[in-house]
Every structure is written in structure tokens, then in C-alpha cells.
């Protein structure tokens, strides 16, 4: 018997984003960055945000009397970044919002992907919520990062 849908949801989110045509030029990383690779200009981290101690926050409660099923609500921490060797922060900021927009679109139902909002059946629903923009300028160029959350509800 399953006690959480978190592992299945994170795995499904990775599959959906890696298959999204709009994210073909973006590296999708499972968890925190192992090292900083300045040659990869665009990344999305699933289950990690800078400064966060939690990959996924979750709560559960009984769904009804009888204690046969439980509802699980959880939030997957995510982070998108765009960096370059130039000095144009506006381009990086625009690009990181384009990347996160592609995530949001990938989580919407379409004729081709009707199960996307359920993370291919892993949850009842999932949607992109909350965001925090981070901007840094260094000798290697600008970086714009956008921490965001994918919020889910599941029945277990």
C-alpha cells in the first residue's frame, strides 16, 4: 500500500518536462546541482531551490470517515535559471520567465497530453504556484533565477 504519491509525482514531472519541446534546450536536473557548469546556460532543478532545506513539503489527512483513504497535499520546490557571458540582465530575466512559462504550459491539458495536469495519473491535480526572482551579476556574466513551486493533491 502506498503511503505517499510524492516519489511518483516527482518522477512524472521530470518525464513531462524532459519531453516538452519548448524545453529541449534546457537541462532538467533531478535534485540539487552537483556542480556549477557555466557551459550549460539554462537549467531547471526539480526538488531543489537555493536556500531551501526542503525538496517537497507535504501534509496528509483522512479523506473521509472510516479512515480508508487519505488526501495528500504537497509542494515540489523547483528552480529555473538562465545565465550567459554577456552583461544583459534583461535578456536573462526574460529567458528565465520563458522557461517557467514552458513548465506551466507543459502542466496544462492538451489533446496530445490530456493527463499532464495529473502528472500522468500520479496525482489528482498539479499546477504551478508561487515564484521568487533572483538576479546576480558576476565576472562570468548575469544569472536570473526563478524559484517556483508545483503544488499537487493526491488520494492515497
In summary, what is this structure?
With 156 residues, this protein is of the alpha+beta class. It has helices spanning 6-19, 89-106, and strands spanning 27-30, 42-46, 56-62, 70-83, 125-138, 141-155.
Label this structure with key terms.
6-stranded mixed sheet, 156 residues, alpha+beta
Helix-strand sequence = HEEEEHEE
Helix content: 10-25%
Coarse morphology: elongated
* Number of beta strands: 6
Separate helix tally: 2
Q: Strand-residue fraction?
A: 35-45%
Summarize the helices and strands and which ones pair or pack.
Elements: H1 6-19, E1 27-30, E2 42-46, E3 56-62, E4 70-83, H2 89-106, E5 125-138, E6 141-155
Parallel strand pairs: 1-2
Antiparallel strand pairs: 2-4, 3-4, 4-6, 5-6
Describe this entry's structure for a reader.
By secondary structure, the protein is of the alpha+beta class. The protein is built from two helices and six strands. Strands 1, 2, 3, 4, 5 and 6 form a six-stranded mixed β-sheet that branches. The radius of gyration is 17 Å and the shape is elongated.
Amino acid at each position: 500500500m502506498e503511503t505517499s504519491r510524492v516519489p511518483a509525482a516527482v518522477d512524472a514531472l521530470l518525464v513531462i518536462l524532459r519531453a516538452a519541446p519548448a524545453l529541449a534546450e534546457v537541462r532538467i536536473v533531478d535534485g540539487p546541482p552537483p556542480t556549477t557548469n557555466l557551459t550549460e546556460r539554462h537549467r531547471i532543478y526539480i526538488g531543489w531551490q537555493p536556500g531551501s532545506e526542503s525538496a517537497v513539503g507535504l501534509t496528509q489527512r483522512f479523506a473521509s470517515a472510516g479512515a480508508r483513504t487519505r488526501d495528500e497535499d504537497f509542494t515540489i520546490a523547483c528552480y529555473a535559471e538562465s545565465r550567459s557571458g554577456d552583461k544583459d540582465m534583461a535578456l536573462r530575466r526574460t529567458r528565465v520567465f520563458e522557461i517557467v512559462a514552458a513548465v506551466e504550459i507543459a502542466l496544462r491539458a492538451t489533446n496530445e497530453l490530456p493527463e499532464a495536469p495529473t502528472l500522468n495519473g500520479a496525482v489528482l491535480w498539479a499546477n504551478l504556484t508561487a515564484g521568487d526572482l533572483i538576479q546576480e551579476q558576476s565576472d562570468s556574466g548575469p544569472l536570473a533565477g526563478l524559484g517556483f513551486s508545483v503544488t499537487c493533491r493526491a488520494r492515497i
